[in-house]
Amino acid sequence: MAIISRINQKKFRGYGNTQFHYAMTYVVITFVVLLILNIYCSNVSQMVFYQSKEASMIEKCHIASDEISAAEVLNPSTVSSIVSQIESLKVTRMLVTDQQGLVLYDSQQTALGQYALLPEILQALGKNDQGSEGNDVFSWKYRSGVMDSHAATPITYYGSIIGCVYMTDHDTAQGALIHSLQMTVFQITLVLEIIVLLFSLGFASAFSRRVRKIMASIRIIQEGDYTHKVTMGGNDELTILGDEINDLTERLNTSEQKRRRFVSDASHELKTPLASIKLLTDSILQNDMDMDTVREFVGDIGNEAERLNRMTAKLLSLTKMDCQESAESEIIYLSPTIRRVERMLSPLAQQANVRLVLSLEEDCPVLILEDDLYQIVFNLMENGIKYNHSGGTLYVTLRHEDDNAMLIVRDTGVGIPADAVDHIFERFYRVDKARSRATGGSGLGLAIVRAIVQRNRGDIQVQSTPGEGTCFTVTFPSFETEVDKE
Amino acid sequence: MKRLLSLWTLACLLLCLTGCHTAEQSGIPFYYCRDSAHYQYFQQDGVIRGEKRDLASHRNDLDYALGLYLAGPMTEGLSSPFPKNTQVISIRYHDEALHLELSDLSRSLPDPEFTLACTCLTMTCMELLPCAQVTIVSTDRSITLNADSLLLFDAPQEESNQ
């Protein structure tokens, strides 16, 4: 019990892993997608602000540059005077340098008289891509809700660079806007990810619960309860799987019932002759009998033993057919085999006063083992003789219909009751048990016939009218090839 | 397997750290311009960057040091702000004031680049000698620089007290 529990735990731990893998796969995929979207949104928002800021800052630099370039001489006082007249620049810091980078004006008053060797200023004062002097330069950095942007543009006087205007803007408002936008996108991403995580876990849990249900049912069936049904609900693949398992269980159940009934029937059938033998031997041993009576009893014992022998031979034949597939079939004509059976059964027919009428109108080849064909024809014709009236007739007809060869065996005997017709091919089934035993029947003949017919891709039908007779129709697909007739 | 991988990773990490440590050079920093493709805005390292040079026994030989400086940098991504044929014509050092006369640079260096080149040279000289100011003369151009006359970084507002 402990071992079983451990095995079960191991199995369920496996499902737990599957469930986890399912959930994590969804989470990781969505996480990556959302991360990409997040980065994209963040970059796009920054780019929008970047472009807006660049245009604004460069424009401000141009305004200042244009105003300052009007001065004939650049020195701290003239520049300071001009800049003070410019309104609405609204930047954090503004530097004005001469062409050497010497700071002539600093709105923060800290770098006045220093040489400003900032990258933007040097680039603005240097040559541009077209080879002429002067560049408009803009750079920026967004960090933690603050957007720092720098812009520089040259001051030109009649085509010559005489200085540079440099501006810095420490923008917390737009920075906060970007930050807010990014945080909103991040929060949406987070919420979506949590929803995905919950849904994934829920879905994986539901899925693995359904799988566990199927596995539990399979274990119950494994333990031998073939009446157990898997109830899945829903309309997905697992439901179909459950239905398939139910179908399989149903077939297993039917097969098991047939097996049990067969074992029961076989035991019963074998027990009867054995009981007779036991009774006869006890009678011989316990009673003083004359030699004639003893000889008669021993003869009966021999008959019973012969019956047992026939029965076991047929059972072996049936078992063999159950286990083997059709193999090594050959294309043969039916009529020679039918005539051979007729010759074999003629004495029996004469003894039973049954007339045999063969009508083999058109012969045709079929793919079958000759021994199998012989067994089919023999069993059907033997039955037709045994269960016929004295003075009756057994008609054996062979004809070709469409692409099939049809063997019809019709007797004028006692017939089969309607309620028994469906059971006559079952093993050990007898319509009239007393008569069957009297004629040496084992209840296996027709079961063997059907098994052989089905094994050889054929079909067998029966029609019967009580008191008038029975007609068996065996159909095989014919093969239109040249074969040697016997 | 995982343990082996972890040990391997740790060994690689230690090797890298050791490599980083040995990469640190001792010597005097020589200042050069960063190539425009190599300097990035807001990196707070500006357009000038130093590389350590070992002067060995010429520690106090300014002539030798300046000759070595004008030969150009050894580090990739740095370039000399002076033209190749630049020569030091005269050196005068008195009372922590250094006076350098260079060959004619008027045709090869425009004004802003002249300022940048002189700044690099001044910063290097200040590493070589204890000088308060450096005056550099090249034909008709002259510039006097000291430690307080340079604005190399423009820090954001909170830090802008330079």
Topology:
The complex is a heterodimer of chains A (486) and B (162).
Chain A: H1 2-69, H2 76-85, E1 93-98, E2 103-106, E3 115-116, H3 119-125, E4 137-143, E5 146-157, E6 160-171, H4 172-222, H5 237-286, H6 291-323, E7 330-333, H7 334-352, E8 355-360, E9 365-368, H8 370-386, E10 393-401, E11 404-411, H9 418-421, H10 433-438, H11 445-455, E12 459-465, E13 469-477
Parallel strand pairs in A: 8-10
Antiparallel strand pairs in A: 1-2, 1-6, 4-5, 5-6, 7-9, 10-11, 11-13, 12-13
Chain B: H1 2-23, E1 28-34, E2 48-53, H2 62-70, E3 78-79, E4 88-94, E5 97-102, H3 111-128, E6 133-138, E7 141-146, E8 150-151
Brief sketch in words of this structure:
The complex is a heterodimer of chains A (486) and B (162). With 486 residues, chain A is α+β, with helices and mostly antiparallel strands.
Task: From the structure above, extract its key features.
heterodimer; A: 486 residues; alpha+beta; Beta-Lactamase; Helix Hairpins; Heat Shock Protein 90; 3 domains; 5-stranded mixed beta sheet; 57% helix; 19% strand; rod-shaped; disordered N terminus; B: 162 residues; 4-stranded mixed beta sheet; 3-stranded antiparallel beta sheet; elongated; disordered C terminus
Major β-sheet profile of chain A: 5 strands, antiparallel
Uncertain ranges of chain B: 20-24, 158-162
Q: If you average the pLDDT of chain B, what whole number results?
A: 79
Q: Distance between termini of chain B? A: 55 Å
Query: Major sheet of chain B: size, sense and barrel closure?
Result: 4 strands, mixed
Structural class of chain A: alpha+beta
Full CATH superfamily name of the largest domain in chain A: PAS domain
Largest inter-chain contact set: A-B, 31 and 29 residues
Number of strands of chain B: 8
Poorly predicted parts of chain A: 1-12
| Span between termini of chain A | 67 Å
